[in-house]
Each structure stands twice: as structure tokens, then as C-alpha cells.
Amino acid sequence: MKIAISTDSGQVCAHFGRAPEFTFIIIENSEIIEKMVLPNPGHSVGSIPKFLSEQGANYIITGGMGRRAVEFFNQYNIEVISGVEGAIDDITKEFINGTLEGSEGICSPGAGKGYGIDKIHTETDDNHHHHH
User: What pTM, to 2 d.p., does this model score?
Assistant: First the structure.
């Protein structure tokens, strides 16, 4: 099993799309087999779920994520655990022990406006209304 965690300096990053990196942890028989950190490939629509899928992730653990992003992860059969905060090592232990609990997410709805998918969507819509 492989988990991906949106990370920033050893901590779970509150906003998955803006995480500087993702930490991938392979777990077999409740043991950590491998741990690697890869930079965020960029936050265009659907790029991160595709990237994590290509890395073989079964789970994404993050602080917060929008509904649309969750749908993208679901398409790749990656389970989302959001609303998580803390140190990577602690979170990994909780995951292995089955005690990791997510919530609705740390970001309140609309908190990410102007940064991620919403911004891309808005710019595209705006461009359709301007005639040059």
C-alpha cells in the first residue's frame, strides 16, 4: 500500500494543491518500507491526482481539499483523507495503527478562491467574454 501526504517541512500541508511537495510512503505488514519526497508537479486541473496515481498512491492525506479535487482522486481510485494536521511521522503511525481520523478539511469553503482550480476556471470563463 502506498500513501501520499501533502507536505511542507515535515508537516501535513493545509492546502493540498499548494503543498511544496508530496511525501510517498510504502507500507507493508504495518511497516514502513520506503519513504520518498517529490516536488509538487504544478496545480493545473486534475494534474495532481494524475501524478499521485502515476506514483501508485492508494491514499492522499492532506489538510484540506475542495470537492472537485476529491472527485478527481475518486476517478483514480485514490481515497482522500482530509482535515489532517501534524508531523508526517506521527500521521503515518496513526494511519498504520488505524487511528488516523480526517474531517471535512481545515480550509473553509471558499478559502482557496483565487489560487487553484477556481482561478483557472474563472480566467477561462473571462477569456470567453472578451473579444479582441
Answer: 0.77
